[in-house]
Design brief:
By secondary structure, this protein is mostly helical. It is 57% helix and 0% strand. Helix 2 crosses helix 5, helix 3 crosses helix 5 and helix 4 packs antiparallel against helix 5. The protein binds heme C.
Length: 120
């Protein structure tokens, strides 16, 4: 059977469009932006936050886009996800408080803060 180049292209496009959210590598611009909100933020904080997302936030559903929620929504959602994870693990802490903070700062920095007009 001959498959046209066009249909291969179409299938590839479909895979990209419906595939999981891929979190972009952390940049210095991210750190600068995040520092407007979290004074002592470091590259390492953001990288840890990203790694935690890639490890923790994909075990029950696909990664949600950092841009899909406001800062206030993330503040409520992260602890709620930590509770889901704890329940699933039979009461064991899976996403501890410090991890929640790193996840939250990362998601807000690469998500809603990029839309905040008062931040460069
Ligand atoms: C133990 C399973 C589990 C883990 C781990 C988990 N989630 Fe969820 N998530 C759920 C369930 C169940 C729902 C749907 C019910 C709800 O909204 O609470 C959900 C819903 C969501 C929603 C939609 C909420 C809304 O109101 O629109 C977002 C955003 C989300 N999760 C983000 C995350 C992030 C970020 C992480 C990592 C910190 C994460 N989840 C980890 C189970 C999980």
């Amino acid at each position: 059977m001959k498959i046209s180049k066009l249909s291969v292209l179409f299938i590839l496009l479909l895979m990209v469009a419906c595939g999981p959210i891929i979190l972009a590598p952390v940049t210095l611009a991210d750190v600068e932006r995040g520092k407007n909100r979290y004074k002592d933020l470091t590259v390492s904080d953001l990288e840890k936050g990203k790694a935690l997302c890639e490890k923790m936030c994909v075990s029950c559903h696909k990664m949600k886009s950092p841009n899909s929620k406001t800062e206030k929504q993330w503040r409520q959602i992260i602890p709620s996800m930590a509770r889901h994870a704890m329940k699933k693990a039979g009461g064991k802490v899976v996403i501890d408080d410090s991890s929640q903070v790193l996840i939250y700062k990362y998601l807000v920095t690469v998500g809603p803060l990029t839309k905040d007009k008062s931040i460069k």
